[in-house]
C-alpha cells in the first residue's frame, strides 16, 4: 500500500501510523509520581463512606455491581462514558458511584492516593498499578481495582472493561504497586 503513495504521502502515512501507535501504547499513560498527597473528597451527595472497607465481601459485591454496568465497554483513551472509558476514569467512576469518593482523574495522581499495600496483603477495593511502558513513545501506567483471589477489574486497551488475573504472565511482569484508599479514609476523623 505504501509503495503506491507519492513520497510525501508515504511520509504522512508513516507519521500517522506512528502517532496512532503511540496513542495505543499510551494506554492510561502517565509518568511516575513526583508529588504526593492528591486530595480525595467525599462527594456532595455522599457525606459518609457508603461501605466499611474492612468488610471485604461488601466491597467486592459493590465492585462487581459496578463492573456489571460497564462490562465490555470499549476502551478509549481519555474516555469517561459508556461509549469508551480509560483505566483511570473507570477506577475514578467506580469509587465515586459505589463508595462516594472522588479520586483524582489520572493514574499519575491516583498512585499517590491512600497508602501503599504490598501485593501479598491486597484486599478487594485496593487499586493496583502496572508499569506498561512499551518503548520510546511510552512511559505509561495502567490501573484497576483488586477483587480478591488474584483478580482485578479494569478498562483494558485490548478488551474494554474486563476482569483479569494477576497470575497472567503479562500482568505479573508489569505489576508496579498498589494503594489502599478506602480504609485510609475511613480511619481519618
Automatic annotation (TrEMBL):
SUPFAM superfamilies: Cysteine proteinases (SSF54001). Residues 1-18 form the signal peptide. One of its GO terms (molecular function) is cysteine-type peptidase activity. GO terms for biological process: proteolysis. Pfam families: NLPC_P60 (PF00877). Residues 57-182 form the NlpC/P60 domain. Transmembrane segments: none annotated. The keyword Hydrolase applies. PROSITE patterns: NLPC_P60, PROKAR_LIPOPROTEIN. Keywords: Hydrolase, Protease, Signal, Thiol protease. PANTHER family: ENDOPEPTIDASE NLPC-RELATED, MUREIN DD-ENDOPEPTIDASE MEPS/MUREIN LD-CARBOXYPEPTIDASE. Belongs to the peptidase C40 family. This is NlpC/P60 domain-containing protein.
Amino acid at each position: 500500500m505504501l509503495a503506491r503513495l507519492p513520497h510525501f504521502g508515504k511520509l504522512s502515512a508513516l507519521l500517522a501510523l506512528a502517532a496512532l501507535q503511540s496513542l495505543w501504547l499510551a494506554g492510561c499513560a502517565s509518568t511516575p509520581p513526583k508529588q504526593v498527597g492528591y486530595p480525595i473528597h467525599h462527594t456532595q451527595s455522599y457525606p459518609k463512606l457508603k461501605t466499611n472497607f474492612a468488610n471485604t465481601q461488601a466491597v467486592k459485591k459493590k465492585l462487581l455491581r459496578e463492573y456489571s454496568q460497564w462490562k465490555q465497554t470499549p476502551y478509549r483513551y481519555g474516555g469517561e462514558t459508556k461509549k469508551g472509558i480509560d483505566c483511570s476514569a473507570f477506577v475514578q467512576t467506580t469509587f465515586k458511584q459505589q463508595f462516594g469518593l472522588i479520586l483524582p482523574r489520572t493514574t499519575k495522581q491516583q498512585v499517590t492516593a491512600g497508602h501503599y499495600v504490598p501485593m501479598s496483603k491486597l484486599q478487594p477495593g485496593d487499586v493496583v498499578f502496572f508499569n506498561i511502558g512499551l518503548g520510546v513513545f511510552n512511559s505509561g501506567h495502567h490501573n484497576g481495582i483488586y477483587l480478591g483471589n488474584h483478580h482485578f477489574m479494569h478498562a483494558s486497551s485490548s478488551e474494554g472493561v474486563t476482569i483479569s488475573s494477576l497470575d497472567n504472565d503479562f500482568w505479573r511482569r508489569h505489576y508496579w504497586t498498589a494503594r489502599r484508599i478506602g480504609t485510609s479514609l475511613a480511619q481519618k476523623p
